[in-house]
């Protein structure tokens, strides 16, 4: 006589299966510091934000763990984030209805709790040729929110801008007209560059449903097919040691309808 065994799975093993980048928890060293050299007007805004993030790291470290112990951890290297963001370079747009901004390079540094994005490019007046670009531009932002798309099950990232700095470019460095343009451009507010705070998608898919096939169709014990429904949310994001650590909190339900055998 065959015996049908109901389907049930403990949550801990399932969580292990879902962890795409499960690694050891990072340990925070307060003596470490950012490696990207900062100069100019953007330095103060970035250092202010870095101090805020460092306080969060220190407080979490004193509490015993900088990430929740039971969360899954997805780890992204800063080089991968830069490659994703830079996949569609150059970016070009008109700022303040007057200046044509072209971003040609991006870099990301994940240190001290801050995922710092640096975008570099050139500025020219609207309608002029690229050879007439009068200034070099650096835009600074933070990869500050990683969310989980409820429909697609993919991780989404967003960038918030922190500061910008501009300096004369090449042969235009000593031109009086260039100085005037630089002064006018430097009066812009950071929100004028919001078009460059582009969302991005991490090429990782989290399955919302896991089908477990039946086993031992013939014999004394028969295991029915099962289906797990998985819901996950981003519980925390940490930038440290050249990586972005994304903590995911998963909830697994094994009582939904099983797939047809």
Description:
The protein is an alpha+beta fold and 261 residues long. Helices cover 19% and strands 41% of the residues. The chain has one domain. The chain is built from 4 helices and 12 strands. It is elongated, with a radius of gyration of 25 Å.
Beginning-to-end CA distance, first to last residue = 20 Å
Write down the overall mean pLDDT: 76
Number of strands: 12
Secondary-structure class:
alpha+beta
How many structural domains are formed by the residues?
1
**Count of helical segments?**
4
Estimated helix fraction: 10-25%
Order of SSEs: EHHEHEEEEEHEEEEE
Strand count, sense and barrel status of the largest sheet are:
6 strands, antiparallel
What shape does the CA trace take? Answer: elongated
Q: Order of strands side by side in the largest beta sheet?
A: 3-4-5-6-7-8
| Gyration radius, rounded | 25 Å
Strand content: 35-45%
Ranges where pLDDT stays below 50 over 5 or more residues in a row are 1-34
What's a quick, concise take on this entry?
Helix content is about 20%, strand content about 40%. The protein has about 260 residues and is of the alpha+beta class. It has one domain (about 20-255).
Protein topology:
Layout: E1 3-5, H1 11-18, H2 42-63, E2 72-77, H3 78-85, E3 91-95, E4 99-111, E5 114-125, E6 135-148, E7 154-168, H4 176-186, E8 200-205, E9 209-212, E10 221-223, E11 226-240, E12 243-253
């Amino acid at each position: 006589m065959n015996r049908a065994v109901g389907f049930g799975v403990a949550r801990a093993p399932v969580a292990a299966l879902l962890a795409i980048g499960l690694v050891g928890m990072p340990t925070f060293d307060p003596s470490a510091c950012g490696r990207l050299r900062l100069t100019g007007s953007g330095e103060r805004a970035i250092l202010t934000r870095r101090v805020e993030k460092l306080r969060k790291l220190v407080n979490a470290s004193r509490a015993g763990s900088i990430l929740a112990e039971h969360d899954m951890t997805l780890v992204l290297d800063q080089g991968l984030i830069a490659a994703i963001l830079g996949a569609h370079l150059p970016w070009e747009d008109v700022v303040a209805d007057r200046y044509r901004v072209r971003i040609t390079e991006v870099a990301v540094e994940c240190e001290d709790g801050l995922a710092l994005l640096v975008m570099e490019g050139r500025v020219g007046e609207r309608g002029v040729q690229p050879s007439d670009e009068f200034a070099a531009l650096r835009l600074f932002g933070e990869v500050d929110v990683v969310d989980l798309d409820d429909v697609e099950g993919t991780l989404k990232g967003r960038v918030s801008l922190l500061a910008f700095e501009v300096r004369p470019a090449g042969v235009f460095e000593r031109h009086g007209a260039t100085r005037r343009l630089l002064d006018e451009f430097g009066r812009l507010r950071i929100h004028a560059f919001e078009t460059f705070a582009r969302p991005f998608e991490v090429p990782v898919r989290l399955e919302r449903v896991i089908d477990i096939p039946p086993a031992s169709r013939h014999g004394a014990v028969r295991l029915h097919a099962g289906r797990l429904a998985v819901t996950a949310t981003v519980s925390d994001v940490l930038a440290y040691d050249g990586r972005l650590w994304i903590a995911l909190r998963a909830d697994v339900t094994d009582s939904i309808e099983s797939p047809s055998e």
